[in-house]
Write a structure and sequence with these properties.
Strands 1, 2, 3, 4, 5, 6, 7, 8, 9 and 10 form a ten-stranded mixed beta sheet that branches. This protein has a two-stranded antiparallel sheet with strand order 11-12. The protein has helices spanning 24-38, 59-71, 135-138, 140-153, 246-252, 260-265, 308-332, and strands at 15-19, 42-48, 75-80, 88-95, 98-111, 128-132, 168-174, 206-216, 224-229, 233-242, 274-276, 282-284. The chain has a domain at 15-156 and 163-182 and 203-265: Brix domain (Rossmann fold), CATH 3.40.50.10480. The chain has seven helices and twelve strands. By secondary structure, the chain is of the alpha+beta class. Strand 11 (274-276) and strand 12 (282-284) form a beta hairpin. The termini are far apart. It is extended. The protein is 25% helix and 26% strand.
């Protein structure tokens, strides 16, 4: 149970690529290129599976939950093509062994990595995600897609990264926004009835482009960056979706109170006047009372002797010599 508690720094999400009963050549190449961007946190199922996430039967959902628990995965990409919905990709996000939310998109246009004779990025590097449209912050469907793509391509969480470590950029843009969507409500998971499908014909398409970066000299400390097309390039259209349950979403968004620095230092709760520096050493701060330096005895210190200090010491010694005989006489009397 302790291992399943929420973490301050979550592990990298593992994605499983599942092929449906019918995929086709286009979907096979699309899933292969997306898996190349997701590696090494990617698992591919070579066999075809009768999986339909949006159907009313619970067989497909139970299969996804079983695969997620067996492979310790929290993301799925299901490819399925039919006559009614050709070249469909379904993104499925899991939480605690249950399906959190789903979203289906259609591949309208595609250009694979093989069509670009350019250098490719190193597997395992985190991409720089760029979303260029106001719909990703206003419209609920595009907010969900942005969250899904960021979870899908995100790797291990790091505190800092060097500039040469950014090898590729994933740019996500939208077609021109129609006037009817300028005042869309900000609600990521609206409570819609399942029997009332949403009209997605007026929603603009999503364009995904992947580039590699080149750092060139610019005469200053900041290099000049050039983008080279790497592939894959995707033109997607929104289709069906399933919103997350509010209670399950609340649990998924819960964060622990213990900070990362406290976890690494083993302190548990934050202690007063204790901190961990950049080198990982535990340092404490001690507060002492106010000291009166006038009563500090310094005449026995050799480093402070000389000049006026010696004269003051001699006077104090003479005064002490005059007082000592008087004290002895009083005691004798």
């Amino acid at each position: 149970m302790d291992a399943r508690l929420p973490k301050e720094v979550e592990d990298a999400r593992t994605a499983i690529f599942v092929k449906g009963t019918h995929t086709g050549e286009v979907l096979n190449v699309v899933m292969r290129d997306l898996m190349a961007l997701k590696r090494p946190n990617a698992i591919s199922f070579s066999k075809k599976n009768p999986i339909h996430p949006f159907d009313s039967n619970t067989t497909s959902i139970s299969s996804l939950e079983f695969w997620a628990g067996k492979n310790d995965a929290s993301l799925f990409l299901v490819g399925q093509t039919t006559k009614k919905r050709p070249n469909g990709l379904t993104f499925v996000r899991m939480y605690d062994g249950q399906v959190l939310d789903m979203m289906e998109v259609g591949v309208d246009n595609f250009a694979g990595m093989d069509s670009f004779k350019t250098p490719k990025s190193t597997p395992g590097h985190k991409p720089l995600m760029h979303f260029a449209s106001e719909l990703f912050d206003t419209h609920p469907r595009y907010i969900q897609l942005k969250s899904m793509l960021m979870d899908f391509f995100n790797g291990e969480v790091v505190d800092s990264i060097c500039l040469p470590g950014l090898e590729h950029v994933i740019s996500v843009t939208c077609a021109p926004t129609p006037a009817s969507l300028n005042n869309a409500p900000v609600n990521m998971y609206p409570n819609q009835h399942p029997s009332a499908p949403e009209d997605v014909s007026s929603l603009p398409k999503i364009h995904i482009r992947t580039y590699t970066t080149r750092l060139l000299s610019s005469g200053t400390r900041i290099p000049r960056v050039e983008l080279t097309p790497m592939g894959p390039n995707l033109d997607l259209s929104l289709r069906r979706h399933k919103a997350a349950d509010p209670e399950l979403l609340k649990q998924a968004m819960k964060r622990p109170k213990v900070k990362k620095v406290d976890i690494e230092s083993g302190l548990g709760k934050k202690k007063k006047n204790l901190e961990v520096d950049e080198m990982g050493d535990l340092r404490g701060r001690v507060h002492v009372g106010k000291q009166d330096l006038n009563k500090l005895q310094t005449r026995k210190m050799k480093g402070l002797k000389g000049g006026d200090l010696d004269a003051e010491d001699e006077e104090s010694d003479e005064e002490q010599e005059d007082e000592t005989p008087r004290k002895k006489r009083r005691k004798q009397a």
